[in-house]
Amino acid sequence: DDDDDIVQLSSHALAALQEFYLEQQQREGMKTSQGFNQYSVGSIEEDWQLSQFWYSDETASRLANEAVVAAGKGGRIACVSAPSVYQKLKEQDGKDFSACILEYDRRFSVYGEEFIFYDYNHPLNLPENLLPHSFDIVIADPPYLSEECLQKTAETIKHLTKGKILLCTGAIMEEQAAKHLGVKICNFIPKHSRNLANEFRCYVNYASGLD
Fold first, then answer.
1. Cα–Cα distance measured from residue 21 to residue 18, given in angstroms and rounded to the nearest whole number
2. pLDDT band of 53, cuts 50, 70, 90
3. Domains and CATH numbers, the chain
4. Is 97 exposed, middle or buried (0-12, 13-18, 19+ CB in 10 A)?
5. CA proximity to 90, closest of 37, 130, 160
6. Which Pfam families does the entry mention (predicted)?
């Protein structure tokens, strides 16, 4: 009988599957509800295959506020592989600064002209209108804890910034961060919405409010 070939889910597995679909529907429902903010952290879900781990709300806010202060009045801020900070900056829309997001994940293209496709493997493959040294501060979070990734991202950072750099990466990258960007570790400990195995830190090359 063909019916014998049909896989039967256990009641436990079926309940788990139903719960998953319910949560998915609830998430989508939140996104389409009137109060949904497309810039809230988590509005675009993490893709672990792209090594995406969003900051906690508190950390994203702290870094965004630091960037605004560092950029100054009318300042320009570039977020390189740091979408949670960009999203927090956009929640402050109306303040006297501008921001853009450089990201490999094209889902962030929903943010329009402020989205710039970015692949760290080609650090200077950037649009012509992204002029050298045109940003008051660059905040960057290289996707991988490797010297190659940091070195290539550093090329992008140095190309874009007028001088100020805020780097977020693993504590194990301290020596390489100093070598490639001349940045020093801060006292502030950034947190993620999910706990990471590697200790994470912030690094700057200016007198910041993160100490």
1. 5
2. low
3. 50-204 (3.40.50.150)
4. buried
5. 37
6. N6-adenineMlase
Read off the pLDDT of each residue in 55-82 and give the average, rounded to a whole number.
95
Instruction: Kindly tell me the sign of the dihedral angle through the C-alpha atoms of 195, 169, 183, 84.
Output: negative
Asked if 120 and 142 count as a contact pair (C-beta separation under 8 A), the reply is yes
Distance (Å, rounded) from C-alpha 134 to C-alpha 159?
9
- The full DSSP string for 43-66 is SS---GGGT--PBPHHHHHHHHHH
CA angle 116, 195, 181 (to 5 degrees): 50
Q: What are the φ/ψ torsions at residue 159 (nearest 5 degrees)?
A: -70, -35
Highest mean pLDDT among 29-33, 42-46, 91-95: 91-95
How far apart (Å, rounded) are the C-alpha atoms in residues 119 and 191?
A: 25
User: For the segment 3-32, what is each residue's pLDDT rounded down to a tens digit?
Assistant: 554 455 566 666 666 666 565 555 544 444
What's residue 193's pLDDT?
A: 75
Token output for 93: 């829309």
Residue 207 corresponds to which amino acid? Answer: A
Q: Give the CA dihedral 11, 12, 18, 22, nearest 10 degrees.
A: 150
pLDDT of residue 46: 47
